[in-house]
Amino acid sequence: MRILLVFPKIEHGVTTYRDRGTPFAKLFGNPSLSLPQVAACTPPGHEIRILNENFEDIDFSEHWDLVGINVLTMTAPHVYKLSEKFREYGMKVVLGGYHPTALPEEAKQHADSVVIGEAEEVWPQVVHDAEKGKLKPFYYGSHADPAKIPPPRRDLVKYPPLTEGIQASRGCPNACEFCATSVFLGRKVRTRPIEHVIEEMKSIPNKVLIFRDASMTLNVKYSMQLFKAMKPLKKKFIANANINIISRNEKFLRLAKEAGAISFFVGFESINPASLKEAHKITNKAEGYEKAIKVVKKYDIGIVGGFIFGFDNDTPEIFDATRDAVLSWEIDSAEFNILTPYPGTPLYDRLDKEGRILTKDWSKYTQAHVVYMPKQMTPKELFEGTRKVIKSFYSMPEVIKRIYRSMKMDKFAPYSLSLPTINIAMRRYYKREFFNGNIKEKLPPGWT
Questions:
Q1: Residues 66-108: pLDDT tens digits?
Q2: Which domain holds residue 286?
């Protein structure tokens, strides 16, 4: 068969389909492992192609026997239209990824088949059934054994980014109310054999890698062993980590730095202890953030923070308090997101039951729109408060200060540009998302 795997265009993010053909698309492109991983699990004897709609158009006149499309919640409306057009041209379409896993019945209305959960172990059966003309409506993927997952087919990625992604583990034991990771990948941490990860790293020419693991601190012992094995490769990397865990283990930090750590993305989520408790973010201790950051900075490892506004315990005072705290900590970059109840998460189920979901237009589920009714502020206050923090943190004077600090950490080595470019990319993203155009268009009708 001829098999096409499609990554749909992204309309919201650091880079979008609108950046096609610009240096931003290459420089800030976000490497996805999903389709290369599925391609690697395709049985031999088939022609297979990966098409990223953010870089090239789809030619519907070219026939494919099977089309697989990866679906995020925010891309679902667009993907459904794509799927229906493929089917109009007589092609069989299979949808998979987080959103079809959360809402399989909805996805099935627009496709011939839906893969629920992880695709690696069930995909060969999908291909076999499609070849025989006997596709089932639903396929249920199990949590794949990482030792049996082949390396992704990066050779099929036509427009590779400057940084490449890699994954050493799957799953997350935490059950944060708002997070889809543990829902989709399970709460058991599954680690790949370290020798498999190292061999894959050796095959990747890119100097800088991004670990796609939920967190490198979920299995500290494993990560430390991995860092030791990585050291001779002289790669540089960016990864997720929990601030309160890494700051208590300076050996972890030393080994991470020796292995090439540039920065850790840290989900601080909130400076409000009540909001952390509400979200079941039990590993975070807000009162210890500042001290923990200082410990990490001793090792010249950057910190990119993630913050969420709109928890039920958040009042309008949270915005100024967060801005002042984050600027005083001198972290290297940050994301400021509006709480978003993704389908399938406990948060979505709770808010839906309470009648607080304002729209099920999935294209609005970007973390830059208010799609539910906050408890202690209006939707407009939540949007404007988030906007206010972004404007302060990403003001040009603050960006310049952070760029100067981060450039000093690695003595102006080429990879030291990673943190400065993150600031440039995020400033550009937020300007496009929160400040261009009429703000009222960002809010549901009637929110004047």
A1: 999 999 999 999 999 999 999 999 999 999 999 999 999 999 9
A2: 163-435
Cα separation, 373 vs 139, whole angstroms? 35
The band of 440, judged by pLDDT with boundaries at 50, 70 and 90, is very low
What value, to the nearest 5°, has the Cα angle with vertex 36 and ends 32 and 37?
100
Q: What is the pTM for the complete model shown?
A: 0.93
Does a structural domain hold residue 50?
A: yes
Please list, in sequence order, all residues whose beta carbon lies within 8 angstroms of the beta carbon of residue 94, skipping any fewer than 6 positions away.
Answer: 66, 67, 68, 69, 111, 112, 113, 114, 115, 126, 130, 135
Q: Is 10 helix (H, G, I), strand (E, B) or coil?
A: coil
| Distance between CA atoms of residues 243 and 297, nearest Å | 11
Q: Is a pLDDT exceeding 60 seen at residue 413?
A: no
Q: What is the three-state SS of 271-310?
A: CCHHHHHHCCCCCCCHHHHHHHHHHHHCCCCEEEEEEEEC
Could you give the CA distance from residue 331 to residue 398 in angstroms, rounded to a whole number? 11
- Work out how many domains the chain is built from and give that number: 2
Query: How far is Cα of residue 98 from the mean position of the Cα atoms in its chain?
Result: 11
301-341 pLDDT, tens per residue?
A: 999 999 999 999 999 999 999 999 999 999 999 999 999 99
The pLDDT value recorded for residue 412 is: 47
Residue 404, number of CB atoms within 10 A of its CB: 10
Q: Is residue 337 part of a domain?
A: yes
Which pair of structure tokens corresponds to residue 152? 């992704």
When pLDDT is cut at 50, 70 and 90, the band that residue 447 belongs to is very low
Q: Has residue 158 been placed in a domain?
A: no
410 pLDDT band, cuts 50/70/90, is low
- Residues 409, 264, single domain; the answer is yes
Q: Which residue has the tokens 């697989």?
A: 68
Supply the CATH number for residue 197's domain.
3.80.30.20
**Exposed, middle or buried by CB within 10 Å (0-12, 13-18, 19+), for 203?**
exposed
